[in-house]
Fold Tyrosine protein phosphatase yvh1.
Amino acid sequence: MALLDKVPGELNLYIGGLFTVRRRATLQEANITHILSVLRAPLEKELFDGFQHMNVEVDDMEDENLLEHFPATNKFIHDGLESGGGVLVHCAMGKSRSATCAIAYLMHRYHISPSEALEQIRQSRPLCEPNEGFMKQLEMYHEMQTPDDVESTPTYQKWLYQREVELSRACGQAPEAEKIRFEDEHGQTSQDDGFELRCRKCRRALAHSKYLISHQARQAPFNQWAPVSDLSATTSSCSHYILDPLSWMRPELEQGKLDGRLECPNPKCKANVGKYAWQGMPCSCGEWIVPGISLAKGRIDEAKPTSAKSAAAGMGIRMPPGAKATGQGNL
């Protein structure tokens, strides 16, 4: 295995380990002008004299967030290539972190999948193998269509929320109130399709089916990111609807308790409609759901979505003549 391996193709893009940086003659021979370091370790500044240098300080751990750095590393690599020079991406061994950043760039430039980019890199450097956490981040980056702004995308924000829940769970605590993501507060979309979940006692609309989390019985692989549009994937044996946190749950979920019950937000009703457990809960189908936020099917009815005006009328709210109801206040 060479100290410096060129990614096959037209680009002057190279991958190597930390020792590669000390081979100045090798770098000059390859016309390297830019060096991207992807590791958390003391680096001797004189090693990078004469080079454009960028350092992303991350460990080769599955729970490291390398995804947030992709836009910056992509730009650095692109600027180096466009300047007419060569770019070296290195980590400690030239195996996981450096490969991940190189893959992200190839995905962004050529609109290819993580597996396709990895296969291309392995043609010259077979040892390249991003750790499992980085591969999942690359797959998410692909699903997001490799945006220049990762942090504002709903997929990334929800992923951060899931990481926060997992961290809190490991510490035996509920997530901090400001870290809880209430899905109905993140963008407004049409609710013409699907169905509503209504309190069986007072008929108050509690959720739309788009906020349900599809899951399968334990014997089948569980994918919490499965599209909710295919609700047939959720086994009919479940006695609860599993869903994302919604804004009407805020007074209860922000109390900092690990678990508790959910009451209908209609002040004249207050029926017990479900429960939650940040550490997770077993569904009746056998799957373990984290976090466990659920509505009991025995206390909920499915109904065709109604307009905001009709919903308001159903809740005893008189709309002014000619007024148009807006928003999703019934969720």
User: Anything to note?
Assistant: Residues 210 and 229 are 7 Å apart (CA to CA). The first strand starts at residue 4 and ends at 6. The domain at 183-314 is CATH 2.170.150 (Metal Binding Protein, Guanine Nucleotide Exchange Factor; Chain A). Helices lie at 24-29, 70-82, 97-110, 114-122, 132-143, 154-170, 250-253, 308-314.
